[in-house]
Amino acid sequence: MMRTTSPRSRVSLRILSRLAILTLFLGFGFAALPGHACTTFCLRDSGRVVFGKNYDWTVGEGLLIVNPRGLARTADSGDRPARWTAKYGSVTFNQYGRDFPSGGMNEAGLAIELMWLDGSRYPAPDARPTVDVLQWIQYQLDLSATVAEVLASDAKIRISVGAPLHYLVADRTGKVATVEFLNGRMVAHGGERLPVAALTNSSYEASLRYDRDLGGRPAPQDGQSLSRFARTADRVRDFAASPSAKKDAIAYAFETLDQAAQPSTRWNLVYELDRLRVHFRTWNQRKIRDLNFADLDFRCSQPVRMLDLAADAAGDVAKRLVPYDRRVNRKILEIAYRGTDFLAATPQAEIERLARVPESATCRIPEGKR
């Protein structure tokens, strides 16, 4: 029987895990880590708002989670953890445990996806409550309906030490912003400061400079971050300029993802923010699967539901959703941790603790919402 850890030892494991990650980053450099070649974009024109993401990584196993509204959560950040209650339900894609998504969309039509960004530096400790780099996504999907609300949250919470990431955020109205953490502060590009809605693994400023310096010449057909950004930016601009592209925006989005795909691409995700639908395929299940938010019950009085991304399915998967199972969450979480170089040595007790984190969430149902 595994020995039960005390509250103090659980905190110590959490701190040691985060220190180990930070030590590896500082000692070996981010560029040594494989598989961080994600690509995101947002297509906007004629009322269409379609968000695409290639998730490129060393691990492909994962879960689709239907997160209810009304769940009260506490961040697993150790240092002044944030506490909140979900205002919106959401659909997320998770590898490192339920409540720790790599991206998703909520019922208000807000989508967020992460990408690796060498050189990211999160804020120094201050009075703000903290969240993990992945729980930052869950926090936003739980509480925000618009890009403006996401950006305003910087005054309320901060990200503690974690993997170097940046994010692309879009809402149902077609507003889009990049969110980066550079030199210890949030740096966002939106509106006129976001001439093209795309993001890869270079800072947005560096990506724009590269794209402009091409001067209309075709970008190289390689997997480098700046090349992928320029090719994806061309596709985003072509969508707005071509009436025929908008006849099937979903097919256009998947074609764009195919053109940016790498050997490490694990998931292709397409969110219809305007119509509240999700489409996805994985490296080992190439059939496109779909999920319509109209078919989902986001009340927290109902069981949390999930779908193993390895399931052999095609088309509408609403009826393939099953009640959340901690054993499945733990299995996927362990695969992800053991398959990620800088997390592979995480103690087994910490894996077990992380698998239990979602169970601390409680349902707070407002009067009249039962």
Q: What would you call the structural class? A: alpha+beta
One letter per element, helices H and strands E, the order comes to HEEEEEEEEEHHEEEEEHHHEEEEEEHHE
CATH architecture: 4-Layer Sandwich
The percent of residues in helical segments reads 25-40%
Uncertain residue segments: 1-34
Strand order within the widest beta sheet? 13-12-11-8-7-6-3-18-20
Query: Nearest-angstrom radius of gyration?
Result: 20 Å
Whole-number mean pLDDT: 90
- How much beta, percentage-wise? 25-35%
- CATH homologous superfamily grouping: Penicillin V Acylase, Chain A
CATH topology, by name, is Penicillin V Acylase, Chain A
Reported for the largest beta sheet, the result is: 9 strands, antiparallel
User: How many strand elements?
Assistant: 21
Please, could you describe this protein's structure?
This protein is an alpha+beta fold and 370 residues long. It has one domain: 4-Layer Sandwich (Penicillin V Acylase, Chain A), CATH 3.60.60.10. The chain contains 8 helices and 21 strands. The strands form 4 sheets. A 9-stranded antiparallel sheet has the order 13-12-11-8-7-6-3-18-20. It has a 7-stranded mixed sheet with strand order 14-1-2-15-16-17-19. A hairpin with a 2-residue loop joins β16 and β17 (285-292).
